[in-house]
Amino acid sequence: MLFRIGRAHVSRGQRGQVLVQIFLNTTAPGAGFQPRHVLSLAYTYHELAVGVTPLNGAADAFDKPVLDRVFLLFNGIHTDRHSRDYFAAGNRSLSPGDVVAIDGRCYACTDTAWQALHAPLHTRVLTAEGRPPSRLRS
Questions:
Q1: 125 forms bridges with which residues in the sheet?
Q2: What sign results for the dihedral spanned by CA atoms 113, 114, 115, 116?
Q3: 56-67 as b/e, with b when 16 or more CB fall inside 10 Å?
Q4: What digits encode the pLDDT tens for the residues 123-137?
Q5: DSSP result, 70-126
Q6: Quick one: average pLDDT of 14-24?
Q7: Bridge-based pairing state of the strands 17-25 and 39-48
Q8: CA distance linking residue 28 with residue 138, whole number of Å
Q9: Which domain of life is it from (predicted)?
Q10: Which of 117, 115, 120, 116 is nearest to 138 (CA)?
Q11: I need a surface site. Which of 98, 109, 128, 130 has the fewest CB within 10 A?
């Protein structure tokens, strides 16, 4: 699912890039993700697709390198312009319960890994302005 973001940062995508969206858990940050939790869209950008093409629809192998980079960038390594912009906007580090979407495939951050989410997020997501997204694509 992709969302129109309002004022959240969006960089222009190019061939070989994926859309990355970072959603912060506003209900119970650090406590893990639950379907009833409210997520706030904190940042959006395009990242190079560095993974291997998924086989038989298995997106995890394709997305893992991107998820690993996202975790590093948004947990204290501020050498990338995206991480600098993210923290300059007042966002906190990623914590268990936060969600990252890569081209609409959603993953919850856990204590030790990423958990694929298969339920739509559209009922639990707020934009940076505190409103539900106005457009969704499944």
A1: 39
A2: negative
A3: eeeeeebbbebb
A4: 455 555 555 554 443
A5: HHHHTTT---SHHHHHHHHTTPPPP-TT-EEEETTEEEEE-SSSEEEE-S--TTTEE
A6: 85
A7: antiparallel
A8: 26
A9: Bacteria
A10: 120
A11: 130
Calpha distance 119→95 (Å, rounded): 20
Q: What does residue 92 show for φ and ψ, rounded to 5 degrees?
A: -90, 170
CA–CA distance, 41 with 27 (Å, rounded to integer) = 13
The predicted structure's pLDDT at residue 30:
80
Number of Cβ within 10 Å of residue 79's Cβ equals: 8
* Location of structure tokens 């969600």: 99
The residue-averaged pLDDT of 44-62 equals 67
One-letter amino acid at 42 equals A
Residue 65: DSSP 8-state: H
Question: 48: Cβ–Cβ under 8 A, 6 or more apart, which residues?
Answer: 16, 17, 18
Polymer length in residues for the chain: 138
